[in-house]
Design brief:
- This protein has 133 residues and is an alpha+beta fold.
- It folds into 2 domains: 90 residues, no CATH class; 40 residues, no CATH class.
- It has 4 helices and 4 strands; from the N terminus they run H-H-H-H-E-E-E-E.
- It has a two-stranded antiparallel ribbon with strand order 1-2. Strands 3-4 form a two-stranded antiparallel sheet.
- Helix 2 packs antiparallel against helix 3.
- The radius of gyration is 24 Å and the shape is elongated.
- Keywords: Membrane, Transmembrane, Transmembrane helix.
Length: 133
């Protein structure tokens, strides 16, 4: 039986990170379908699971790889943004974040009350920073 399935799957795309993401989305929809619009959620869940199975059995490997690459770019961008936000929250007691008015780079400055001169490490522009608390 395993050999028959292995031969059937030969030349097909199989599982990837987008497939796992679609399963996670399916279970999230399943969780919320108990409280919010069960008919709509059931329809969305059906579409998600059918699309995931279609992708898994697809023989168009190049297109499936491109879809997965786009998904990974988006997910990595989200992870990076969340990581920066968490770091900013952790640094809140000791650091302040300001943007350079010249080039727009975010600078991490020590939290000292009053007016200070800051120099951007990227464009070397000097500007005044006011930290209130």
């Amino acid at each position: 039986m395993k050999e028959r399935f292995r031969r059937f799957m030969q030349g097909r795309y199989g599982l990837d990170q987008l497939y796992v993401g679609m399963l996670v989305l399916y279970f999230i929809l399943l969780f919320f379908s108990r409280w919010f619009m069960p008919e709509l959620m059931t329809g969305l869940m059906t579409v998600v699971i059918l699309l995931a199975v279609f992708r898994m059995f697809s023989k168009n490997i190049v297109v499936r790889q491109k879809e997965n690459a786009v998904y990974l770019r988006v997910i990595n961008r989200i992870k990076h943004t969340v990581k920066k936000l968490v770091q900013k929250i952790k640094d809140l007691p000791t650091k302040r974040y300001r943007t350079c008015p010249n080039c727009g780079v975010t600078l991490r400055l020590p939290r000292k009350r009053g007016r200070h001169k800051a120099t951007c490490p990227k464009c070397q522009a000097s500007f005044e920073v006011k930290i209130r608390f």
